[in-house]
Amino acid sequence: MKTIAVTGGSGKLGSALIKELQQEGYNVTSLDTQRSNELRCRQIKVDLNDFGQVVSALHGAVAVIHLAAIPAPLGYPYPYIFSNNVVSGYNILEAASLLNIRKVVVGSSESSYGFAWAPSPFSPDYLPVDEEHPQQPQECYGLSKIVNELTAAMFDRRNGMQVISLRFSMITKPEDYKHLAISKPEAFKNIFWSYIDIRDAVSACIASLQVDDRGAVCLNITSSDTLSDRPTAELIEQFYPDVKDLRDPFPERTAIVSNKEAERVLGWKPRHSWADQAAE
């Protein structure tokens, strides 16, 4: 049975992913700074900033899904957030290279584009925001994600390691939707009303694990609709009237961040929407 190492296994996405991997027949090892009573797999407490610990913890794995990180520019000094996220990412990839692990999936973020946490808000160059849009963060978290994506590309150049970086939008659970300000569009303006249901985030991780010969790629992982009950064209007109380069039509509640490349590369599509939950 193939062993998959999941860093951040005790976290929201990590724990949901591990349970699904086990359902699909994988053996899973969780790497985290703490143990979880909810997980029924091998758990290793590891400091990902210690390269020796990382090498030891990854021994025996055939692939890695690296989700551990400080998830926002909040709660810690900025230099620590940047250092933690970048060093741990590098250590995972260096250890995988040393152990001849050929597949790594890395949790990146739409925050790398710079809009979500920008102290000086700005508009996109064009819409929809796809993977070719410039990444222009103004803070440490988005920058750390860019550095990890560049590090992934380096390891692909070095030894052909497949590293798929998933730029997750805001990850939501089904029970979250009733608490979100979906009828207040200003609440999610800075993230373009972008979100991803945790079940779809899990399926994107597994699709990335199962696909072959993709090298180092970065993919938006977002829903196909917006986290708003208003038409997308109306949202753009009200909140981003300065964006004149509209490269796709936006009927009904079509997402402003594109997931078309993930569909092309992974054969993946999101299946869940807040609107379905509301209807239930």
From TrEMBL:
Is Ribonucleoprotein one of the keywords UniProt gives this record?
Answer: no
The NAD-dependent epimerase/dehydratase domain extends over 4-171
List the Gene3D superfamilies.
Answer: NAD(P)-binding Rossmann-like Domain (3.40.50.720)
Record keyword Ion transport present: no
Q: Keyword annotations for this protein?
A: NAD, Oxidoreductase
| SUPFAM superfamilies named in the record | NAD(P)-binding Rossmann-fold domains
Q: What Pfam families does the annotation carry?
A: Epimerase
Family to which the UniProt record says this protein belongs: Belongs to the NAD(P)-dependent epimerase/dehydratase family.
Instruction: Write the protein's name.
Output: Nucleoside-diphosphate-sugar epimerase
Q: Which organism is it from?
A: Paenibacillus glycanilyticus
